[in-house]
Amino acid sequence: MKLPENLKYTQDHEWILVDGDVATVGITDFAQGELGDIVFVEIETEGETLDKGEIFGTVEAVKTVSDLFMPVTGEVIEVNETLADNPEAVNKDPYGTGWMIRIKISDESEIANLMSAEDYKKMIEA
Length: 126
Known about the structure:
Oligomer: single chain
Number of strands: 9
CATH architecture: Beta Barrel
Distance between the termini: 15 Å
CATH superfamily: RNA polymerase II/Efflux pump adaptor protein, barrel-sandwich hybrid domain
Helix content: 10-25%
Structural class: alpha+beta
Strand order of the largest sheet: 1-2-3-9-8-5
């Protein structure tokens, strides 16, 4: 299981890559593995400003449907449109081509509350 050190993580199994006041968000390698084969990604929140913890979309796998949660407060400025035709990218490359949204961060202080790769690893191994 991969856990890139340059990312931050949430208890809801999202990862976030911060670049200034814009962040890219997806689900972790652990999460995609637990979900199984992903068959559909639904994100209809582009252009909306959502609070930390609010649902920004859903992922449908063969076994279940799972909500996707905002890691920080911000405006959804871009959705990975390639996932509509290629949802399996989340399984194959969760930290690359399987990214889900880009957000303009509203409150940068929330980043400090996210987990490091080491902390996330401890949480999923507990």
